[in-house]
């Protein structure tokens, strides 16, 4: 799996929670949704650089803990009326382990 990084076991990320990974590209926040879907974005809000990994997850969105900006986890885009985006990484679960694509 060239380019894919094994992050952890899915069970090591709490439902509606996150885990931070540093893969030489800065911190990446890996989120687990209520239905065990996983998402990965740079752990930096496009507004003021707040740590998205510390935000509140609801559905496929995370709310920045600093100023309340909502980010769509499946695209990295800010939710209107806010603008901006954070880099998104492909993420998947395989045999109970979480992987992110660093390419």
Short description:
This protein has 103 residues and is mainly β. It has no helices and ten strands.
Q: How would you describe this protein?
A:
There is one protein chain. This protein has no helices and ten strands. By secondary structure, the chain is an all-beta fold. It has one domain: Rieske Iron-sulfur Protein, CATH 2.102.10. The strands form three sheets. Strands 2-3-4-8 form a four-stranded antiparallel β-sheet, with no helix packed on it. Strands 1-10-9 form a three-stranded antiparallel β-sheet, with no helix packed on it. It is globular and about 40 Å long.
Sequence-ordered SSE layout with sheet pairings:
Blueprint: E1 4-9, E2 17-22, E3 27-32, E4 38-42, E5 56-58, E6 61-63, E7 70-72, E8 88-89, E9 91-94, E10 97-101
Antiparallel strand pairs: 1-10, 2-3, 3-4, 4-8, 5-6, 6-7, 9-10
Number of strands: 10
- Secondary structure class reads mainly beta
Shape: globular
Mean pLDDT, as a whole number?
94
Q: CATH class, anyone?
A: Mainly Beta
Q: Which regions have little confidence, pLDDT < 50, spanning 5+ residues?
A: none
Q: Count of DSSP helices? A: 0
Give the second-level CATH assignment, the architecture: 3-layer Sandwich
> How big a fraction of the residues is strand?
35-45%
Q: Taking Cα atoms only, what radius of gyration do you get, to the nearest Å?
A: 13 Å
Largest sheet: 4 strands, antiparallel
CATH topology descriptor: Rieske Iron-sulfur Protein
CATH superfamily: Rieske [2Fe-2S] iron-sulphur domain
Strand order of the largest sheet: 2-3-4-8
Query: Terminal Cα separation, in Å?
Result: 11 Å
Domain count, please report it.
1
Q: State the helical fraction.
A: under 10%
Helix and strand sequence = EEEEEEEEEE
């Amino acid at each position: 799996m060239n380019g894919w990084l094994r992050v952890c076991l899915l069970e090591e990320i709490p439902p509606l929670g996150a885990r931070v990974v540093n893969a030489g590209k800065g911190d990446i926040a890996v989120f687990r949704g209520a239905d065990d879907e996983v998402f990965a974005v740079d752990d930096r809000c496009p507004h003021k650089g707040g740590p998205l990994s510390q935000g509140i997850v609801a559905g496929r969105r995370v709310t920045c803990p600093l100023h309340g900006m909502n980010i769509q986890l499946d695209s990295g885009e800010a939710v209107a009326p806010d603008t901006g985006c954070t880099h998104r990484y492909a993420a998947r679960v395989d045999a109970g382990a979480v992987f992110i694509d660093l390419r």
